[in-house]
Specification:
7 helices, 10 strands, five-stranded mixed barrel, alpha/beta, Rossmann fold, 35% helix, single chain, 248 residues, globular
Length: 248
């Protein structure tokens, strides 16, 4: 089986590289990538950058050179369901896009491997959940997002890439699987917007982070807490992706 994994941020990429083992570095278009080949399968890991536009562009560049049997979106997420804790694993059960107060379902072929993974891991006592992945174009407060989601949505999480990746996968007839780990739970709201830290291509710029902290010094404890939680979540991501790859 040939597998492609798309991540957004360097820490997510490092977690997936740890899960995959030794890999050769390369470029796919403008994107950083890593490739590992074994007699059983080929694995390609591509770092897209944050947001819908970057994620879709990375998948299009990837599909211009490779044709995977499975396309995986891997990374961190925010927990919308109150039962989700930092480090919990969410696997895509369904996807939607939330923008300007509206919700649009994403029709996509979800790989059966995701359902099987959740069932096996849950039976073994792991905190792995089948989830609604809600995609947003910018950081959105979870308390504002939650009422917009379909009633009874399964353990919803919020992130910014999977819906775009899933749409391109569906257009090319490739099964999709999303796997994310929770870095900020439902009761942890971010006191800043993404555009305060990033350029227009959603790349984090250190000078913008520093200027934002100068303007909003009260967010420092939150940033420290988020950094700690992100380390927990990336460790969990590495372990979860390793278990997932072993099951494929």
């Amino acid at each position: 089986m040939n597998i492609a994994i798309i991540t957004a941020m360097p820490e997510e990429t490092r977690a997936c590289r740890k899960a995959a083992g030794a890999a050769e570095s390369l470029r796919i278009g403008r994107f950083r990538a890593f490739c590992r080949r074994t007699p059983e399968c080929g694995l390609l890991l591509v770092e897209s950058g944050m947001g819908f536009k970057n994620a879709a562009a990375a998948v299009e560049a990837l599909l211009g050179e490779y044709r995977p049997d499975l396309l995986i979106s891997a990374g961190l997420c925010g927990g919308v369901a109150p039962e989700l804790r930092v480090g919990d694993v969410a696997v895509s059960r369904e996807l939607c896009i939330v923008a300007q107060g509206t919700v649009q379902q994403v029709p996509v072929e979800l790989a059966a491997a995701g359902h099987n993974f959740v069932a096996r891991q849950s039976a073994a006592g792991a905190r792995v959940f089948a989830s609604l992945f809600a995609g947003t174009p910018t950081i959105m407060e979870k308390r504002q997002l939650a009422p917009l989601l379909p009633p009874g949505a399964s353990c919803p999480v919020v992130e910014m890439e999977s819906a775009a990746i899933a749409i391109v996968a569906a257009e090319h007839g490739i099964p999709f699987l999303g796997i994310r780990t929770v870095s900020d739970p439902a009761d942890e709201e971010l006191g800043f917007s993404l555009d305060e830290f990033t350029d227009r291509d959603l790349r984090i710029r250190p000078h913008k982070v520093a200027l934002t902290i100068l303007r909003k010094p009260w967010i420092m404890p939150q940033l420290i807490r988020l950094a700690r939680n992100s380390r927990i979540a990336t460790d969990s991501l590495a372990q979860a992706v390793a278990r997932l790859l072993a099951s494929l």
